[in-house]
Design brief:
Layout: H1 6-10, H2 17-46, H3 50-54, H4 61-106
């Protein structure tokens, strides 16, 4: 939920990475687990009509829970934040992918990296 694998990608840039890296990963997993558990419990308490949520006209049960809990305006605002967070998580994942591709290219570990194709 919080892109906890980002700590693994950033660990080579920290001081005393052999100690701080694993501690940061452990804390990120712990915090993500606790927040994810709280989110799951909150969704369970907000579900009033399970069959209605599953057969939602939106086709998205999580969006329907937001609409049921906050009305049309409140649910739309909450769903906007979900979409925004997903966008930034995607950006973070792309950043991690490009950093990894750069590290592989730097170490000649990509396929055909020994050939001059250009």
């Amino acid at each position: 939920m919080t892109d906890y694998d980002g700590t693994t990608h950033m660990s080579e840039e920290t001081h005393d990475a052999a100690i701080r890296g694993p501690v940061a990963i452990k804390m990120a997993v712990l915090v993500s687990g606790i927040v994810g558990w709280m989110l799951t419990i909150t969704f369970c308490f907000c579900m009033t009509d399970f069959d209605g949520i599953i057969a939602s006209p939106t086709g998205l049960p999580a969006a329907q829970i937001f609409l049921n809990a906050g009305g049309r305006i409140g649910g739309t605002v909450m769903w906007f934040w979900v979409i925004l967070i997903q966008f930034f998580t995607g950006c973070s994942a792309m950043l991690a992918d490009t950093r990894m591709a750069y590290a592989f290219a730097r170490d000649d570990a990509l396929p055909f990296s020994g050939y001059d194709l250009i």
